[in-house]
Amino acid sequence: MTTTTTLDLAGLTALPAQTWGAIRLVPLVRDEPIADLRLDARLYGDDLAAIALDRRTAYYAYIPHGFVATWTADGTPAAAYGTRLRQGDGRRADPPPCVSLRFHRRMARRVDRNRLRFLPLHLALEGYLALHFGGPAVVWEEWSHRAVGQGLSPRVEQAYTGAEVAGLGDALRVFEIHPGQCGVLLYAADALAAAFVVPHPDDYRALHPSLLHDLYGELVYHYAMLYGPVPDFRARIADGAVYSLAGLRAEAARQRAEWADFHTTALAGGLLDTAYEVQRVRRMGPFALSRFLPPFHRRTEQHIGETITHEDGRLAYLKTFRLSEAQTRRGHLLTRLAAADWNLETAAGLLGITPAQLALRVEAAGFGALLRQDVLDHYRAAARGTAP
Q1: What does the alpha-carbon distance between residue 74 and residue 355 come to, in Å, rounded to a whole number?
Q2: Is 370 strand, coil or helix?
Q3: 158 within 8 A of 173, measured Cβ to Cβ
């Protein structure tokens, strides 16, 4: 089931940001915690993970942890099972120097009647990598036998762990967690890097360190490394505007409301004002686990992610990944090719370029092997103006 909608942070209030170098964290506090859905972490360590998506398709990635969602169908409170840490056995011999591999069955898998294990963020990344994965549905003469027989297999994308993002580890260690905090929006040089929302404050306190192990895009990594400290937005009260404690409280409330409105419309506008294509992955009692893809508009902020929403529309869980410009270009290109049934001339017309220019874009995006070599050589020559 696929729908198109925007993200709604109703019930979540943005509190004043905290900054550390180029990192800015904006706490999100719930008006009322969601008690009938709870999340806890299942730690997997540093092993390379392989997930069987179906009989012919597998997903390989670094997956340090999974989340287990526990819910109740009647609205009564649910209890989180808690995070379990693994400890090495000193009596065992060290393993041989090799890359170990952990196998998983599917991105989201029911482990009990009211418990679901899913792999956070990788559920969304798999949706991005599977974008038009089958390749050309019509055997146009320009496409190679590989394109027709194997499609886009394999699809590969790169990301950075939070430990590699400059300043993020220190920021997560020293930043204050507010009472009632159920989420955070993370910025690098005031570019929105990721959003993270959970149902309950206790879940957030337990999962706050997991942000250091999440994946972040190329833009986030470079912004955090290259840019200096971001400015702090400080509240200022005009002289003579306050004459009592009640007036001070009112002025503080007004400043907080203005900050929340500014944050939602300015800083987080690129995430919240976009219409996403949402695919439901699993029904969980009154909740639904879904993932979403952006429209892949060029030169704009584009995010992929996953949500858990209640049937009444409340957002219980959110995790996002900001695509780099190159990743957005690849999504944009694949979307336009699919809309044209993979006909190069038709797709070139949609993009307002020549077929030769489109072929070179396909090659630059890393999909050159999908085109027949003689066809690609012809288009290269045409682009240079040396075609016969």
Answers
A1: 57
A2: helix
A3: no
Locate tokens 């609205």: which residue?
75
* Exposure string over 43-71, b if 16+ CB within 10 A, otherwise e: ebeeeebebeeeeeeebebebbbbbbbbb
- Give the span between the Cα atoms of 321 and 96, in whole angstroms: 35
Whether residue 370 contacts residue 362, with contact meaning beta carbons closer than 8 Å, is answered with yes
CA angle 86, 104, 121 (to 5 degrees): 85
Q: What is the mean pLDDT of residues 173-196?
A: 95
| d(C-alpha 269, C-alpha 371), whole Å | 39
Rounded CA gap, 147 and 144, in Å? 5
The burial of 167, by beta-carbon neighbours within 10 Å (0-12 exposed, 13-18 middle, 19 or more buried), is given as: middle
The pLDDT of residue 376 is above 60: yes
Q: Judge contact between 304 and 279, C-beta under 8 A.
A: no
Per DSSP (E only), the strands in 138-275 are: 160-161, 181-188, 191-197, 215-216
Task: Give Cα 250 distance to the centre of its chain.
Answer: 37
The pTM (predicted TM-score) of the whole model is 0.88
In the numeric block, the tokens 């009632």 are attached to 180
Average pLDDT of the segment spanning 103-128: 85
Tokens representing residue 78 in the block: 């649910």
User: How many other C-beta atoms lie within 10 A of the C-beta of residue 83?
Assistant: 15
Give the residue among 232, 130, 251 at the shortest CA–CA distance from 190.
Answer: 232
How many helices, marked H, and strands, marked E, lie in the chain? Answer: 11, 19
User: At 350, is the secondary structure helix, strand, or coil?
Assistant: helix
Terminal Cα distance for the chain, rounded: 50
Mean pLDDT (the chain, rounded): 88
